[in-house]
Amino acid sequence: MKYRNYMIKKIIKSFGYALEGIINTIQSELNFRIHIAMTIIAVFLGFLLAISIIEWIIMLLLIGSILSAELINTAIETLADYISTDHNKHIKKVKDAVAGAVLILAIGAVIIALIIFIPKILLQIL
Description:
Elements: H1 2-28, H2 30-48, H3 53-83, H4 89-125
Helix pairs in contact: 1-2, 2-3, 3-4
């Protein structure tokens, strides 16, 4: 029982640290706030246009992937800046690559959102 209580406390602490990381990123990173805004718009449109369960699953997977990738990007950039504030071609390469990964996910998400939402919007208009 004592071990179980210890593990529960440890898990709760871990969630607290994760939440703190998300809050810090919201406060410090414009791109993360932009992704949050796009998430709110996508969820609003999802409800407004009554997207299917499969479309919700796809959207939620994309949202989770993009927000997670942006958090990873922030973590890597923060660590890289801590290691060296001087221009370093290796650090630049790492930071550019992780930013590129987020960009690829975001472009894919926009394309998928257009595939999901445009037909529904056209049905509403026509």
